[in-house]
Every structure is written in structure tokens, then in C-alpha cells.
Specification:
- It is a single chain.
- By secondary structure, this protein is α/β, with parallel strands linked by helices.
- The protein folds into 2 domains: 8-84 and 210-247, Periplasmic binding protein-like II (D-Maltodextrin-Binding Protein, domain 2, 3-Layer(aba) Sandwich); 87-201, 3-Layer(aba) Sandwich (D-Maltodextrin-Binding Protein, domain 2).
- The protein has helices at 20-32, 43-51, 65-72, 102-107, 122-137, 141-148, 166-174, 184-193, 222-232, 234-242; strands at 8-14, 35-41, 58-61, 80-84, 87-92, 113-116, 149-153, 179-183, 197-201, 211-216, 246-247.
- It is elongated.
- 45% of the residues are buried.
Length: 254
């Protein structure tokens, strides 16, 4: 990618990309001279801002559904998947939650569950998808989980720093929440803030795979198009992998 005259592009990105995005942009800027402005937040809320008339060059979402919806409306070009994440659970050790008893403990009325906010933040959508999968093997479970899940983050762009889990850490420290369902890439920092907390893998039979999607907006600058290709390049995918994301399989040859 040859260096050209400097340009500025605007990127709207999911809060869960807050650590990897600077690394992607640093590498891209070193190659092209292009600089970027960014806005981080819950992807559903960012999509709503775009639908209301705001026009970034690139939209990076923790859910493929949001950029795909913009494409359906003619606001963006077709969406593509650029990475996967993993859902996991941050738990208080005294809650006795393991991979083997995960479903039983989650259904225990004494166990407080914290999540992000569905519809506004894809992390919440993925948590509710897990609830529905649990309901498939334990009919009637969804109503219980839906009723007791505490939506503590992701409801607004100003409620907490994008990608940060301070309200979750406070709830877990206070004992009002014993488990938080969230992205594996973000849980290390959370458990470091909560005494006697750990990360537990969610059983495969009830877990889901977060699918990250991107789209360039209609009227996107050339730099935005180039950055989207860079994310899908071996270099971009390697940076995502180094930050804990699962890269997508790229077509060979070309």
C-alpha cells in the first residue's frame, strides 16, 4: 500500500474493539500516512446514529447484523465478516460456577446474572441467544433468565467508557451479581478488578460465536475502503489474532 497524501477518515467502532483498533490504525497509518478519527460505543447505538444521518467512512460492529441492516437500507455497501470473538463468563469464585454446572448454577435463583443491554449492544444480544439455547435443553428456562438478568452496561454511549465494565465490577464486588456474560477479549481486565473472580468457559452446547462485521458507508473516502481491505489482509488479521480475536479465513490466491 503506497504512501500518498495524508487524509482523515472517520471510523465508528464497537467498544469491544477499543484495544485492537489503535494497533490496526497505527499499522495502517505507518503504511499509508492516513490518520483517523474514531467513535467507540455499543454497536446498536452507533447504527442508530448512522440511521439518523451521521456518516462515518467505516462502521466496525460486534454483530454482523448491524452493518448488514445499513446495507439493506442503502446507507452502506454490503457488509462482510472480519473477525470472531468468544463469549465467556466472569464469575465470583464463591458462586461455585464451573463449565460442568454452568447451566444449573445460572438457573439458581440465588445467582445474580449481569449482562450488557440487548438490541443496543451486541454483547447483550449474544447473552440472550445463550439464554434461548439453554431454554432448548431446559424448556422454560428463558423466562427465568430473561427476568433476572441485570442489564448493567451498553444501554447508552455515556453510561460508561466504551468497552469498560466498571458497573459490572461494582455489582460483582457487592455480590448483587455473581456472573457476567461477555466477550472473552474483555474479561481479563474485569476479573483483575474483582477480588476472587475468574473466567469460566461457557459450555459449547449453549454458547454462541460473536460475528464481527464491517461496512463502508456510501460516499466513503478512498482511505476508508483501503482500511477495510487492510483489516482483511494477513497483517490486519494477525493484529486481531494477537488481541485475542479469531481471524476469518481469507480466500487464497487472487
Amino acid at each position: 500500500m503506497a504512501s500518498a497524501k495524508k487524509a482523515v477518515m472517520m471510523i465508528y467502532a464497537a467498544g469491544s474493539l477499543r484495544h485492537v483498533l489503535p494497533s490496526l490504525l497505527s499499522a495502517f497509518t505507518a503504511m499509508t500516512g492516513v490518520i483517523a478519527e474514531t467513535r467507540l460505543g455499543p454497536a446498536g447505538l452507533l447504527r442508530e446514529r448512522i440511521e439518523a444521518g451521521e456518516r462515518p467512512d467505516v462502521f466496525l460492529s460486534a454483530s454482523f447484523a448491524h452493518p448488514a441492516r445499513l446495507a439493506e437500507q442503502g446507507i452502506a455497501r454490503p457488509a462482510i465478516v472480519f473477525a470472531h470473538n468468544a463469549m465467556a463468563a466472569a464469575v465470583r469464585r464463591d458462586a461455585g460456577i464451573t463449565g460442568r454446572n454452568f447451566v444449573d448454577r445460572l438457573l439458581d435463583p440465588a445467582i445474580g446474572i449481569a449482562t450488557s443491554t440487548p438490541l443496543k449492544d451486541p454483547s447483550g444480544d449474544y447473552a440472550w441467544a445463550i439464554f434461548r439455547r439453554i431454554d432448548q435443553i431446559r424448556p422454560g428456562s428463558f423466562a427465568l433468565l430473561d427476568a433476572k438478568a441485570q442489564k448493567l452496561v451498553g444501554g447508552s454511549e455515556t453510561s460508561n467508557t466504551p468497552g469498560r465494565y466498571d458497573p459490572i465490577a461494582a455489582a460483582m464486588a457487592a455480590g448483587s451479581a455473581h456472573v457476567f456474560l461477555g466477550y472473552r477479549t474483555g474479561l481479563t481486565g474485569l476479573v483483575a478488578e474483582v477480588q476472587d473472580a475468574e473466567i469460566v468457559a461457557i459450555p459449547r452446547e449453549v454458547n454462541v460465536v460473536p460475528e464481527y462485521g464491517l461496512a463502508t458507508l456510501v460516499g466513503c473516502c478512498e482511505a476508508g475502503l483501503a482500511f477495510s481491505l487492510f483489516i482483511l489482509s494477513a497483517t490486519g488479521q494477525g493484529i486481531l489474532r494477537d488481541h485475542g480475536f479469531q481471524p476469518v479465513t481469507l480466500p487464497q490466491g487472487g
